[in-house]
Fold these 4 entries.
Entry 1:
Amino acid sequence: MENKVLEVENLRTSFISNKKTFNAVDGVSFHINEGETIGVVGESGCGKSVTSLSIMGLIKRPGEVNADKISFQDNNLLKLNKEKMRKIRGNRISMIFQEPMTSLNPVYRVGEQIAESIRIHEKVRSSKLKNRVIDLLEMVGIPRPKEVYRYYPHQLSGGMRQRVMIAIAMACNPDLLIADEPTTALDVTIQAQILELMKELQESRGMSMMLITHDLGVVSEVCDRVVVMYAGKIVETGKVENILNHPQHPYTKGLIASLPKKGQNNGRLNYIPGQVPSPLNWGKGCRFADRCTYVMDKCLEKIPPLLDVSSEQQSACWLCEEKGGSSFANERGKVDQATIARSE
Amino acid sequence: MLMKEEKLIKQPLLEVNNLKKHFPITKGIFSKEVGAVKAVDGLSFTINKGETLGIVGESGCGKSTAARMIIRLIESSEGSIRLEGQEISEINGKKLRAIRKDIQMVFQDPFASLNPRWTVRRTLLEPMKVYGIGKQRDREEKVYDLLNKVGLDESYAYRHPHEFSGGQRQRIGIARALVLNPKLIIADEPVSALDISVQSQVINLLQDLQEEYDLTYLFITHDLSVVEHIADRVAVMYLGKIVELADKEKLFNNPLHPYTEALISAAPEVETENKKERIILSGDVPSPANPPKGCPFHTRCPKAMDICKEETPKFKETFEGQYTACHLY
């Protein structure tokens, strides 16, 4: 049985806009197993970044985080006071942000910024500290680490800065790394380097990773499981192969079909008509209903829950209730037969 | 399709020859020139009528600088730009104004490229006012016509940019570029600020408009999958130079230059089966202020030879219709 590092149940994060309260994240549940990488995908405004900030306890008032459960290893993150939360944040859960230029302090040397994150969480002698920082810089593939220790962020390129960010995140050997669009601001060849580095570090340390991205290509390269979000809700979740090859939710289908593909030259691209609804105008039904080609009466009435498509894939679509129920039964049947065969 | 190809061969619309832009680096109180950032360093290409030429490259390779020179937002340091045979890199005053009408641009950031205090209607009327085209009634008709063409409701004409989503704003930006019936449209990363589902809507729109108005596009992007979809020919830039230029099919199926090869293989793919072997380049793009001697790519090239460090490779036709600058060929 796999150990769950992080478990989130029914997360709701609300903000206030024009005196109206709305949930930017509205009832999100998922878990991350030990040593696993999950991807969270969705378009801008779907709540993927807010989800990660809520887990980290970084939502500021008047924003409010509610959940049935956010547990990290044995800690209930909802109940921790600020002091204890600070001990976990940056130490056992750390985070990498999208823009390496704005997340580093421009007036401190990069070496000192990495050292700071170690100093906050551990008592280390300063002579040892410097060596540890230089080792970290070397680990993330920065050439001439002793020299770079004394550099300011502006002396580094975008890719190098993101490596420094990774070094800061890895400084205390976290058990969970949350990376929010870590490669979006980078060029493709640099993106490939950084993704490779993150994969290596994750494998060598058995760390769990939550990768937030809008790029399905990145998900396919790095992740084991994926969570697809739309308008504050999870619409589909499952293993990467299943989601990318056999998407069940019309939104996931549309998203994958929208990508320009080889051999589809000069034809028209598929697209999803309409736009993402504003959180202030979410109706009572499925939030994808007004853009969905398969929309039924039921969709306008009631939000579909996550329904089992197979034992490894869930989809929040009423269509899956009708056809999915039977196919899930079939899957189950196969599993049962397999176990029977084995026991014999 | 055949007709389109015939047309392509016959009429060059834009010819760029040995275009250069060197930004001076100055020092001291007398601004003494101590060097130059060679943002664009010898660019040559042709765009034919009705064609889409894609320019791909990483940030800092000079693709946007090239576009800005063509549209005459910045002056070129050297080289010629000819639109329908007429040299436009030197002209000024009235002649330049007349030419400006023929080349229009769609910008990357739809949030920054529209005046937030103007209604859509005013944004679209402005170019016609500037050029004194038509009477007020004709102009307004044209505005509504264009709004329909780019898939926006006529009632949106009196709204301000903040009332629209990113995709809708980009549609307004496209409509603005079309107001003056330009011959060439330069689209600088027109879809990179948009979400995937909206991105495909805008790409489709650009293709529909191209067919309808027989437009010619210079399409600048860093996204290979987009350029593979929309372009007829593709130029790959690295450090201010074109390293490879070929028909889309040839370039993607049989890339010649090691940089093109690495770029194509580095792009993450959604395909989960038959994953290709990726080439991961080491290091960063060198600074254009101090480009390496010889081939600019040799510092990162997996196939670098001794000659690459010494001699800059010539840009030549390696196979029919496929140009590359590499010592391997």
Entry 2:
Amino acid sequence: MPQQVPRLIAVFVVALAALIGARMALVPDTFGDLGHYRAAAVDSITAHPKKYAGHAECSLCHGPIAEQRLTSNHRTVTCEVCHGPAAQHTTAPMDIKPTAPRERGLCPLCHSYNPSRPTGFPQIDEVAHNPLTPCITCHDPHAPEPPEVPEECSACHGQIARQKAVSHHTNLQCTVCHEAREEHKVNPRANRPSKPVQRSFCGVCHAQDDLSGERIPQIDLRSHGEPYMCWQCHYPHRPESG
Amino acid sequence: MQGFIYPNEFELHWGLLVVLYPYITGLVAGAFILASLERVFNVKEVQPTYRLALLTALAFLLVAPLPLLAHLGHPERSYEIFLTPNRQSAMAMFGFVYAWYLAVVLLLEIWFDYRQDMVLWARQSTGLKKWVYYALALGSTDLSEKALKFDDSAGRWITVIGIPSAFLLHGYVGFIFGSIKANPWWSSVLMPVVFLFSAMVSGIALVLVLYMITTMFRWRRIDMACLDKLAQFLFYAMVVDFSLEMLDFIHRLYESEESIEILGQMIESRLFISLIVLQIFMGSVVPLVALGLVSPGLRKGGFVRVPPELKQFVYFTAAVLVQIGIFSIRWNVVIGGQLFSKSLRGLTVYKVELLGLEGLAMTIGLLALPFVILWVLVKLLPPWQSDEEVAPA
């Protein structure tokens, strides 16, 4: 056997032995019992001390505030989301106090403008929106209502407004297609605006026999896309996108 | 942002470092396949680049996992993919593909090829250097004819195993993207094949550039027969690669799946510079025409006869353009696949960060690192031949 072979074999045997040794020493005993993880991790995680008390515990002492929150727009945001983990506070209420965030930084975590947030969700531009003023100066976080009724749809529907502004529908007011009752501005989810329910609505401008002129795309409403509503295929806030 | 996108599509999760990773692994596979030309297919003209190609492949292979480690974070946990292998995950199995290629293919081939030289260098050197070479040769100092013959045949067999391994290494990277069914830009059975041929193109172009630069810095005369052969193979690999890419495009157009409209919009807007200008025009058409005219790829001596200096300039420029084009391919695949919404109704944008763990500075650093490693390797294991002609003053 050439001299090289036993030496190379020795190198590979050492490497393999190191791998096997590392596996024996480092892979936990319960690894793979339940899945591709350490099964004992479940027990060690459940053994962690409890940090969160849960909002039911809070309402035992803070009843009025808890009730106020339950009927507000923050009804799905539990107390400890803003105040932090409060399990220790429930055992020693006077000695350990949860935090009460009063600075400007916390609210924008959810309410600063971000295109990936659902439309209609209140979003602000932190730089332009009342700079340096803490949010709680104007908004009560336990019952957050805008101090003034928004004047424009774009206050809440910024993403749609931005798209419409660069589309062929830029000159159409929102109210041409949507009827929004005044209550929508105060309680938006309980009073949703309307959407067109007839194909003939879009046909006012886009049907072949209308009077809108040739520069607007026109189709035969009887043969084009039956039985679907126009907005099921064409996105009205930016119709050229497909 | 334009049109409608889903909330989780606003920010891209795979950034510049994930672009860098397939680019580097492609260079590794390509450089190795070039080395195999001389070893297995007996293309004698490219012999001057054989060892340089092997060292280049090693230098880039050592850096290949670093972009992933920087992207994923917690590099101290990376050894766990070896200890608890997850056979359900192609990404997790990469550790083994990598280890196989590094330990069984590249290091072994370099070792067999350099053993004789390392023994000789150990004998000629003194002090620490002597022991470094002795240790690198694993103390195997037998230089008998029989032992050297064994080195040669073992090296040849490893190269034979190495070619499918190189295909595995980079085909795997294409496989990762090609097997993502939910993404119409990636999901293509051609993806591993396109990745493979683009790897060959980038590897040959890189070794061509490195060979020219290192030869000039050593004041040696460039072996034109070698350079012509490199350019010829670069041209052939580019023809196949470009044809496959066009086949992929035509296939998509002919299929005209529901995604074709948004992909068309993406190419016209977001990817216009990187795909139409850099990948297709600058990175493929211009080098193909240049190499087709000057290199012996289509006609012995080339269609246009030019002085060797101009020829070298054309080859060098074409190879650099090819590198830009191949990097653009990786960019267009990785970034392009995340720029359009899965709703097929909108496009998002990607802005490169300058600093940070996944920023431009990190990418440039990781791209420069293989060249530093290569410099060290070349100092330690000089790949040059002793009978090279000295360049005229």
Entry 3:
Amino acid sequence: MATKEKSRKLTERKQNALSGYLFVSPFFILFAIFGLFPMVFSFYLSFFRWDGLTPMTYVGLKNFEIIFNDSIFFSSIWNTFLMGIMGTFPQIIVALLLAFALNSALIRFSNTFRTLVFLPYITSVVAVAIIFSLIFNNQSFGLVNYILSMFDVEPIRWNQEYWPVKIAISTMVFWRWVGYNTIIFLAGMQSIPKELYEAAKIDGASIGQQIRLVTLPMLKPVLMFVVFTATIGALQLFTEPFIFLGRGLREEGITMVAYLWRDAFGYNSFGTASAAAIVLFAIIIVITAINLLITNRVGRSKKVQ
Amino acid sequence: MKNFLKLLLAALFTVSILVACGGGDEDSNADSSEDDNAEEAGTETTEAQIGSDDAEVELVFWEFGNTGYDVLIEEYVEANPHVSINLINQDMNDLHDNLFTSISAGSGAPDIAMVEEAQIERFKVAEDQFYNLYDLGADQVEGDFLEWVWRSGQNGEGSFQFGLPTDIGPTVMFYRTDVFEEAGYDSSPEAVSELLSTWEDFANVAQEINDKTGALMTDAGELVYNARRDQATETYFNSDDEFILEENNQIKDAYDYVADLFDAGLVGDIPLWTPEWFAGMDDASYAVFLGPAWMQGVIKDNSPEEGIWSITTMPEGAGNWGGSYLTLPSEGENSEEAYAFIEWLTAPEQQFKAFQGYGLFPSTPAVYEMTEFQEYEDSYFGGLNTAQVFSEAAEAVIPVYKGRNYYPVDDEIKEALDNVSSGSDREDEWEAMLDRVGSVLERQ
């Protein structure tokens, strides 16, 4: 009797486990097809020469040799980091302030402003490209050049010069993503109990102190999420340089993903593109590990307080 | 150590999830085409199902640019009610990327795909992915087409025909009569052609026009380079696909010539297919526009007033820029119906209609003999017999072998020219360009 019951229990547990696996399987199946397989396949591809149409030939480490001898590859890594920093940090700070303003009771029509702030995120990329190519135009009639000309600054060639390219692209990144992060922050802020602010106000805290001592600590998980996604997003930056520079993707503004895209679809060289993807993969893992490490440290020190 | 490994694993997992989630973003961009090979800078994909819903055969047809084929297809399905055609218009670069991906993956290709003249080289390694049109009866119509156009649509041995030619792009000189008159020249096509019969004349007149009116010769120096490039007898690769740019003086001369014009401040550096480039066509800030026949649609759209623009021959002959082929990817199941349709669409009568519609210049010489064609006058260009000018240019075209790496090399030269226009040293830029091209070719 006892053994029978035990075995039935086991099957029940197995059944439970099975249904559990069944429930989570859609994600894992999709992930295996669209995430894991391409990843594994690009590891495999990086040792081959393949133009996408003819059979592959094994070339060993030749693809890595080619990209490591290409100065543009190193420019692309450096550009990615520079533009990541230039696009991400100001964006997080501004998003935080905007979210705080939108969350405060002082602002009227806050729903309207919330919608407006989110608009850039849903704007068609083509429209963004046209607008930004007019704002950051090389000619003296470009908007920024025109404004600069009032201060006697010579027209800047926005898509050719080293820093201007990065400034222009970072501005696009900033403009497109600041609203998205604002909304995330706003959601986080709205989950902070009002009582905390009231208590702070009664204790005589200024707005600055409220942000620093109430909002920020309570917002830490959201902040971490935003920093995380922004870092990954910055490392995978592609759309903005692509629409700003066109298919030529000049060295001054090419990013790592743009570099591997150009190898694959501009030059039909899927082997070197995969090799570049693997280097990118390694870099992202290292950065994410550092990110996690910092997050853990910060979390621990807080508990001590 | 154990903690570190855990951390690394966690990082790996997080990354893979985030990568998987973020993956969709990259492909969603629509490219604002800046390539000079784009026939039209359209970026939207439009789809039209033409023909009855219960037709036995449905053909999917990918096209790019402004072809006006929708009207012709209406005509075809009316005569052939058992066929319906799903016409999908895409941006030119997107179309070729999509076709490449679907052929490489072995699924998703249309029944009929329009492929641009220089892009077709990229697909020639994949004979097994296309129907050989010779097997479907293309030898019957071979004689209808210009020989060099036909040749460019087949493999090296001439045994495999990838596509039927639609149009060609003989290059001519569009010019603004008002600017020439202001500078004190006779603005009739004959006089302008006479005035600008050599590239040396072109540079001298550019200087005079600039002195007298302040206008530039042209706003995109790139177009002057393209014009001279398309006149060259060899460009970047020889017919054995060997890289010959370093020894090819014709291209270096073209490069130096444009660099001189930049240095003298006689040509502008506006990138093609940008809003400011389109806008420039309507103000009298420059005198000439060197471009192929199909460019007339672009000019008409952007500068609607009649009688300002006119057309004449280019200095020192003509070249060919663009034009396309209709190919049948082997994935399509109705090759015979598809072939019947493309044979009809590229027949002289239909090519003439496409010329009337959007200025697509016919690749079938029979059209040049039609009286309607010879007498075709375009009131936009001051009642000029445009067909005449384009036919003359078409006859002067010397076919050039391009090779599959033509556009990557061309892009690097354009980048060098761009840098020269902003004041960099031309020899340094030339060397830097050769370096970049070397690195690209190493991958092949």
Entry 4:
Amino acid sequence: MANTLFFISLFLIWIMLLYHMFLMEGGYLHFRSFEKPIDDWSKKMDKVPSVSVFIPAHNEAIVIEQTLRAMSRLYYPKDQLEVIVINDNSSDETGEIALKYAEKFSFIRVIETVEPNKGKGKSSALNSALADSTGDIVVVYDADNTPERMAVWYLVMGLMNDPKAAATVGKFRVINAAETWLTRFINIETICFQWMAQGGRWKWFKVATIPGTNFAIRRSVLERLGGWDVKALAEDTELTIRVYNLGYHIRFFPKAITWEQEPETLKVWWKQRTRWARGNQYVVLKFLSQFFTLKRKSIIFDLFYFFFTYFLFFFGVILSNALFIINLFYDIGLTVGDIALVLWVLAFLLFLGEVMITLSIEKTEMNRKNFFYVILMYFTYSQMWIVLVVWSLLLEIKRMFTGQEVQWYKTERFSKQSDKGAE
Amino acid sequence: MRSKYSFWLAIGLLCFYTFVKSETVHAAEAEKDIALIFATSTQQPNNDVRALQEILQVYTSVDVFSIEEVNQQMLQPYKRMVVLNTYPTNIPQNASSAVDQFQGPAVMIGENALQFSPFSKWQVGPIVELRAIGEEGLNSPVQWKSVKPSVDYEVVKMASSLNQSYPFIMKKHNWSYIGDFINSDTMQYQWPAIIGELLQLPKPQIHPAFIVLTDINMKTDVQTLQEVVMEFSEKRIPIALEVTPILLDESENKSYYLHDNKKLLSYLQKLQKEGYPFILSSAISTEKSLNYLVLRKIIPTINRGDSSLFKGNIQQGDQQLYLSQLEHHTIYPMTVGTIVDRDIYPLYPVKQKIDLLLKVPRSVIGIQYPAYLNATYVKGLVDYLSEHPQIELFNFRQTKQQVKSENISIVQHENGEQTIHLSFSKIERLKILFDERPFELILWVLVLIVSMFVTLFFISTLRLRITLRKRLFEERKTNG
């Protein structure tokens, strides 16, 4: 019995690790090739479409100024660009700061959310802006983002050269990576996620996920989809699936870069990631019944990946840990030999290899300090995710049974960030 | 002239060789001891004949003849004679006169006895149902045509039906008579001594004995086994370990492999190094079990049951009491059986069986000690064995053994050394590994694949680092 459970846990864990390994190789290959068509693509950029940049903002006074400063410096014809700050029920000076910029730059304007969308979260705010804008392309940035000067240009370039793409997603980097041990971990995590999950999936399956910020999407597609799902906590993942179901794909184009702020304290991190995990669990459960009726098979695969990640993989990890701990105190007849130990060491080396390759892709990230952080991360940060996913699942199950309304948690911002992106 | 000398030389050599040969024959004939003559319906030896031959062989050399081929000249070299009649027939004249004139100790068994002159005055009695011979009761009654012997015969043993006794074994001078060779129940332990005495044979004193720790498999508790082995070892009692490497649980339809009990496996490997002998017990194919053990450095040199791969085989059964050779295979009979801890006095039946066996000259005392029993009974058993100095425990590791399969060749010498030669190809080893541990093999394949990818990632990382350095160098050069 113990052996069977152990083999089940091994299967669940390693099916995911193998998939990630495969994705990592794809991400690396994508890195080596993604810049090659840029010269050709630039030729089509002599007549660019109109763009509406949405910045949903709820109490973002700490960060909004820097974001708008970066917006003001964007490389894009200003007659084709409108930057819309969606001031969503802010009680701080977000509106005032935004208005100051609106007065200064004609392509920046501020809108206020009104009932019934007021204060209902990011999706509602974005829907308000969608109704109040005209750009052919909609670009979304979180209020703590400082996109690099060429970011919107590249996002649009991706769409202009790929008629089958409904959206282009860029890369985001952590602006406050050096602040705390937590932001260092998050920095490593985001770099790895983007090259592995985004780059790898794009390379092998032409699949990428809308990350919630630094992405451009065709208005026509958004309108066909009826905007964002206001019930979704992870509105980006949810939108991704609906986009694919329409028959489009989403292009990952890491040339478009934005810098964003990440949680500096564990409490904020916990709240933000719980929302993400619950959001993704919501998406899996929402589309679970439609698994085989979805039009695009690649997205079924992707949904299955989410299902595996948030349900089976963590179940496998917990099961494996439980068996290991019980076996320390009580002989449960585990007879799997040295191979288990070899696999454990190999899993660690695989993690190390994958993270190191992605850090090496980013110019300055592969350094001695980060190398030690990666090792530490495996035993701390990565393990925290297990607890978090279990907790999120419990909350999501509770919500399903009680019919409790979802509370959209807005990530708390931190001051003293550098002006990296805009430079 | 030359050819003439050659002729005489040839004649001379012929005479010499003829003389030498006849001397050799006489010498060989002079060594002959017992002639076992049988009368069966098929004129071939039956089970009774073979059993009697085995009993007699313990004492001395035995030649077996059908009654039809017996004549006076043929019987001349023999010192002793046994005639076993297993069915009523008319004895040929040549045979009866040859037997009649035999001067050495002779035993006549069965109903044709009255056709021979020493018993010609006897009368046939009624057919009766025998329930006991002497003190030994029979489990099921045996029909026997009784005899009325002449008064000059001394009655050695009576047989009895429900309400009457009959003379069954009689003796006069060199001739003895046995009513019937009933080789069942406890009688099989009586005949060797009875017949040996009637034939005036010198009684061998020694009983070869061995102890086997049985039922060692994946489910064995290593702690208990260690205690038992230690106890025997402290008392300097040689033991052998009977291992079932692959245990088949039919109720669960599952195979349990020895390697699933790592502690036990390593303990057995340690015992192998210390020189303990191992016996193979196979729940599945003997060859597969043999391969399994040998590849794990446990070398079984004897097999439980029949196997052509092993020269030495241990057999269980009530009929076999002696070490025997059968088609170049040595059979070690497990005569005593096992200790059953459910009994109130678990050692009592074992002691009883040993007592019976001690009555059978040179019988083997083969004892099973199940590995699931704790060491409690070791002392009682050893004490009892030491009370009988005629019991000689032997060490299987100090016997010559040979094992030969397609891929394995083991030779064990009497000094305990083992010469092992394995000829498994890599593919065969992989196949065996896959059969035994399919999941683990898959996991090792996984290890291989992942290792390749990890290496690839580290190489890619290195490549990226070199590219980055080059780029930084170029930038520095360009920027001055």
